[in-house]
Design brief:
The chain has nine helices and nine strands. By secondary structure, the protein is α/β, with parallel strands linked by helices. It has two domains: about 60 residues, Multidrug-efflux Transporter Regulator, Chain: A, Domain 2, CATH 1.10.1660; about 140 residues, Resolvase, N-terminal catalytic domain (Rossmann fold). The longest helix is centred in the last third of the chain and has 33 residues.
């Protein structure tokens, strides 16, 4: 048996093909003559076999394994804003809710859990998820509600994911509980503080320029 990843060259010489198939050059000549394995000729008269033709032949004999195909996974993504929530088991509860809510739909899952603000677009597990989607490793994504994935820019992520054929499945339309409202308030305060800092920095820079 041969792995598809082993064949990296666009063309193969007679000697190489002979070694791969374990047959003589005369046998390959007969293959070419009878149309079993098609050869191409160079201007100098040398015979070559294309990668595609060689793989086609091996596949017809049941001798090729496509090890380049990545088995896609369903991804369950859970996030909380504080370590206190994590300690209370909120991350695990999100995963449980998703498994129960989408019972029978999720197959071959991988769970990504993390603590971080919904405003932070550099979260490690979020970036891992995005990279997995871009690398065609994800079949579908499951979250409790949109803000778990990101506080702002959800539609951008959804558009990119759909372009790669990945659907984001949302369990609830809106978040529930006082913790969610508190998280939202904290994120808004963080956003205001961030913009205030930038505005102050811009004013200080202008002041220095005038001076």
């Amino acid at each position: 048996m041969f792995n598809l990843s082993e064949f990296t060259k666009p063309m193969y010489k007679v000697g190489e093909v002979s070694e791969i198939l374990g047959v003589t050059s005369q046998t390959l000549h007969n293959y070419d003559k009878n149309g079993v394995l098609k050869f191409e000729r160079t201007n100098g008269g040398h015979r070559l076999v294309s990668r595609e033709e060689l793989i086609k032949y091996l596949d017809s004999k049941g001798l090729i394994v496509d090890d380049l195909v990545v088995e896609k996974k369903d991804v369950i993504y859970a996030r909380v804003s504080s370590h206190e929530q994590k300690t209370r088991g909120d991350l695990d509860r999100q995963v449980t809710k998703i498994l129960e809510g989408f019972q029978g739909q999720i197959k071959n899952p991988i769970v990504l859990k993390e603590v971080g603000s919904g405003l932070n677009d550099k979260r490690r597990q979020l970036l891992k998820l995005i990279n997995m989607v871009l690398n065609d490793e994800v079949d579908a994504v499951y979250i409790t509600y949109k803000d778990r994935l990101t506080r702002f820019g959800y539609n951008y992520l959804e558009t990119v994911f759909l372009y790669k054929g990945v659907k984001i499945n949302v369990l609830s339309i809106e978040a529930e509980g006082t913790d969610s409202a508190k998280e939202f308030a904290n994120d808004i305060m963080s956003l205001i503080a961030s913009f205030s800092g930038k505005l102050y920095g811009m004013r200080s820079h202008k002041k220095l320029i005038k001076e």
